[in-house]
């Protein structure tokens, strides 16, 4: 059940358009908006390998797992998670150290979380975090696996070709009760495997501060893969860095590797989304837009006594029935 301790959720501390005008009129920040001439792009396999190495090293440096705070706001931002049916299946893409998976497992005692990441170090940290928690049956309900969603579709055990075709057939003949009927590939939480072929797809996908770490030219592959494993009517929850967020403005000119795309000294990437760029990605994959907005939040760095203006993009998308 949900914790009795409420977590405040707010998203409109300031107006994004006012921030935009201020930033774009600042000559010292003009380099962020200049056209960028792309260099030659590495092959997907080479680029993916470098990304995995960078994130392995990142999580090895932050071995305590305290770098990422548990995202307790998720049930307020995405209330569907709080009201979902028993034994609903969530796919957490880019799980990191389980800062998203843990509050989901804590908030619903019967929900099942499949969690993937391209970093084996991240998966080790996530597994340690879940095992160290006092969440009811968390170890059985947390299913981690190593996967880079930006280079290929998800493994067949999530949804096999036969079940995918069956779902499409039901979709085409408008069976309105599809979401209420269990597939032949149902999940038994007490068993070690889901079924003989696959788990029949998932009810929800969470894409929380993950897509921004993927090279821009591979984002559409990642979103299409998420679409393919969702059941018809399933929801994708999206939250990521928004245009003009303070972290974007901290990047130096030589850290630009694309338009609104940057690379840190440790090799990890960050892209900053506008509403249009996010919309194009998800609608292009076949999703229906339910919600899409900027979250503009003021936070205080107590150590430096400095006010910070954070911008994130919040999105909720649905796979059509």
TrEMBL record:
Keyword match Nucleus: no
Keywords per UniProt: Methyltransferase, Transferase
Pfam families in alphabetical order: Methyltransf_23
Top-level lineage group: Eukaryota
Enzyme class: transferase
A GO BP entry: methylation
EC number from the UniProt entry: 2.1.1.-
Family affiliation: Belongs to the methyltransferase superfamily. METL family.
InterPro entries xrefs: METTL2/6/8-like, SAM-dependent_MTases_sf
Organism, scientific name: Cynara cardunculus var. scolymus (Globe artichoke)
Claim: Transferase is one of the keywords in the record: yes
Protein name listed in UniProt: tRNA N(3)-methylcytidine methyltransferase
PANTHER family assigned to the protein according to its UniProt record, in alphabetical order: METHYLTRANSFERASE-RELATED, TRNA N(3)-METHYLCYTIDINE METHYLTRANSFERASE
GO molecular function: RNA methyltransferase activity; S-adenosylmethionine-dependent methyltransferase activity
Gene3D superfamilies: Vaccinia Virus protein VP39
Function: S-adenosyl-L-methionine-dependent methyltransferase.
């Amino acid at each position: 059940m949900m914790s009795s301790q409420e977590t405040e959720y707010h998203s409109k501390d300031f107006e994004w358009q006012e921030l935009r005008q201020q930033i774009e009129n600042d000559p010292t920040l003009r380099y962020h908006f200049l056209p960028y001439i792309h260099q030659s792009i590495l092959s997907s396999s080479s680029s993916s390998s470098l990304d995995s190495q960078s994130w392995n090293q990142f999580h090895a440096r932050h071995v305590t797992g305290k770098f990422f705070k548990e995202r307790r706001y998720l049930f307020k931002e995405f209330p569907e998670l709080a009201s979902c049916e028993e034994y609903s299946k969530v796919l957490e893409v880019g799980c990191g150290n389980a800062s998203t998976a843990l509050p989901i497992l804590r908030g619903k005692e019967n929900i099942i979380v499949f969690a993937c990441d391209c970093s084996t170090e991240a998966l080790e940290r996530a597994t340690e975090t879940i095992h160290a928690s006092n969440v009811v049956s968390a170890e059985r309900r947390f299913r981690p696996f190593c996967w880079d969603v930006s280079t290929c579709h998800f493994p067949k055990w999530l949804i096999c070709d036969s079940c995918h075709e069956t779902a499409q057939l039901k979709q085409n003949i408008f069976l309105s009760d599809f979401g209420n009927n269990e597939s032949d590939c149902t999940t038994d939480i007490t068993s070690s495997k889901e079924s003989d072929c696959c788990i029949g797809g998932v009810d929800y996908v969470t894409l929380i501060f993950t897509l921004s770490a993927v090279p821009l030219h591979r984002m559409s592959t990642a979103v299409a893969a998420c679409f393919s494993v969702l059941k018809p009517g399933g929801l994708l929850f999206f939250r990521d860095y928004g245009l003009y967020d303070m972290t974007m403005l901290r990047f130096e000119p030589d850290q630009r590797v694309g338009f609104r795309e940057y690379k840190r000294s440790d090799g990890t990437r960050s892209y900053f989304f506008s509403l249009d760029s996010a919309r194009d990605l998800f609608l292009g994959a076949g999703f229906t837009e339910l919600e899409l907005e900027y979250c503009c939040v003021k936070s205080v760095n107590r150590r430096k006594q400095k006010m910070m203006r954070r911008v994130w993009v919040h999105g909720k998308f649905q796979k059509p029935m």
